[in-house]
Design brief:
Shape: globular
């Protein structure tokens, strides 16, 4: 039996959650680059609403809005229908701290998203946003060990030490990879450092264990624009594969650690990262794999040219 024709527009992609801080930036850049975007939002408030008000008439024409629920498989299928790509990131509401419950929700969401993409015939690539915290935490790690994309955090170690952000990102990414390989979904993960935004949340869950990260030389941050470039670069590169550590700054000096602490807790008189016991740390994490992809990436190119 001859398969039915499937409408495919390689320049149509989905962003989920489009209302997250990263999602808003991705939607804007994708529209500027000439893509048609399915903006799948878990909520339509805050930055997302402000973004819509700033769009040109041309950009509005190439934007479709969807209400998505990470635990509702059918809403995800609706949002990614007809798309060749998905940019997926999970970010709980800012007033909801990471805990064991959020870990479960994030894992289930990752499963639903990859399963939905496996059922959409037009889907060609999924860019899954994970975290450096899914790489660096494990029992008995050597002080001078070098971390790259091959490393994984140990979920049992994360749970034992209540590193809930690391546990969630590790288990969700492992779930996504296992299902993607089983279903034949072309997936790439971006393991991002602490995302630097104009307004950082107070005590971001990423930084649980920050002192240990600093001493191990793996406390890294990434500017949101650099992170968006990384997502676009791996999506558009035919040679991209697997996992990519993504950061553009390594916090290795006490002064840099103090500045970061002051940004996160501006009201603190003596930021924790400014303690006298901090010494200059040696960097033990690298993202050479991502840099190779970024070398061939043209941030000014439009896909419809």
């Amino acid at each position: 039996m001859t398969p039915a024709f499937v409408h495919r527009d390689r320049n149509t992609v989905c962003v989920m959650d489009a209302a997250s801080r990263l999602g808003v930036s991705l939607v804007m850049r994708l529209l500027q680059r000439g893509y048609t975007v399915h903006a799948a939002a878990y909520s339509r408030t805050g930055d997302f609403s402000a973004t819509l008000e700033r769009l040109s008439a041309e950009d509005r024409r190439r934007l479709r809005l969807f209400a998505a629920d990470p635990l509702d498989y059918h809403s995800i299928v609706d949002a990614v229908g007809g798309c060749s790509g998905l940019f997926y990131a999970f970010e709980p509401p800012q007033d909801q701290p990471y805990d064991d419950l959020v870990v479960d929700v994030e894992v289930r969401s990752a499963h639903n998203v990859v399963e939905a993409c496996a059922q959409v015939e037009t889907m060609e690539r999924v860019v899954f946003t994970s975290s450096v915290t899914a790489v660096i935490w494990r029992e008995g790690r050597e002080p001078a060990v070098e971390f790259d994309e091959r490393e994984w955090s140990e979920p049992s170690f994360c749970r034992k030490n209540k590193l809930w952000h690391a546990a969630a990102k590790t288990l969700a990414e492992k779930t996504a990879w296992a299902l993607a390989m089983d279903r034949g979904v072309d997936m790439i993960s971006i393991n991002a450092g602490l995302v630097m935004l104009p307004e950082l949340s107070v005590n971001p869950p990423y930084l649980k264990g920050a002192l240990e990260m600093y001493r191990a030389g793996v406390l890294v941050t990434v500017d949101v624009d650099f992170l968006v470039d990384a997502h676009l670069a791996v999506y558009e590169s035919a040679e991209a594969y697997g996992r990519y550590l993504c950061f553009d700054n390594v916090i290795c000096r006490p002064l840099d650690a103090a500045k970061l602490a002051q940004m996160i807790c501006p009201d603190a008189l003596h930021p924790p990262a400014a303690r006298n016991e901090l010494k200059v740390a040696e960097q033990h994490i690298q993202n050479k794999k991502l840099n190779q992809v970024l070398m061939d990436f043209d941030p000014g190119r439009r896909v419809d040219e």
